[in-house]
Amino acid sequence: MKENQADQNVRRSSRLKQNSIQSYFKQEKAIPVVDKKKALKPLKEASISVNDLIKPENVVIKIKHEKPEHPKTTKATKPASFRWLRVNKWTKEAMALCPKPIMGTDDGPDDDCEVRKACMVECTDKSCTAGPSCGNRGLQRQEYAKYEIRSAGGKGDGFYAKEDIKAGELIIEYVGEVLTKDAAQDRLKHNTSRHVYGMGIGDGIVIDSAERGNDARFINHSCDPNAETGKWEVRGRPRVAVTARRLILAGEEVTFNYHFETEGERVKCMCGSKKCRGYL
Ligand SMILES: [Zn+2]
Ligand SMILES: [Zn+2]
């Protein structure tokens, strides 16, 4: 029985090799262009092209209502090989692909926190004079919403708000290992875990929370999501914030749209929303 399952995994993985290239998240949110001095440019590829690398079998497994691997809470249910990260861990190879910062600090510090925020660039001590009162360092300060990880029924585990979260507020950062797309693809060939989540962020870079990451990996897809992802620049590097699209009430499951695309087998959606398109 186990051997059969392993075989199936291998087959699924090899199918994935062909399909995953066409599977990705697209940009969810246009980057605001701010009309102000310094002619700040919007992020060129602010697209979170999400999940090049979500393995089709992960979703399939959820649809089959198999017992979730993480039935209760995060800490108690992490896979044996999994390690928690507070911040992204970059490989040298991915770093080499990292685009140049769009917002240099050559001009010295100023009080343009709101301008930077609108351009999705967090302030640093170099760029901003506001110090502790600066309201544009949420990712660096990990100003996350209160949440819990618990069962989301047939979908496996889910990420639930434990307090009301206002529209636009940061919920959590999507943290993982930052790999080149090639390296991430290569891992998929060998990885037998069914919880593999990779988020493509442009420039051939992927944030992969399969082996290392934070609780954002538990956020499920919805066709009518209450949250969205956005690519920010923090200290010259791209990072992904999950923010509320609307008021999220305490107790609601937090979801975003994976924009999962594949030319292979279509995957049935379990989101349960009235706007469900039926498939991911
Ligand atoms: Zn600031
Ligand atoms: Zn749906």
UniProtKB/TrEMBL annotation:
One of its GO terms (cellular component) is chromosome. It is found in: Chromosome; Nucleus. Residues 265-280 form the Post-SET domain. Keywords: Chromosome, Methyltransferase, Nucleus, S-adenosyl-L-methionine, Transferase. GO terms for biological process: methylation. Pfam families: AWS, SET. GO terms for molecular function: histone methyltransferase activity. InterPro entries: AWS_dom, Post-SET_dom, SET2_Histone-Lys_MeTrsfase, SET_dom, SET_dom_sf. Residues 145-259 form the SET domain. Residues 1-21 are annotated as: Disordered. This is SET domain-containing protein. It comes from Carpediemonas membranifera.
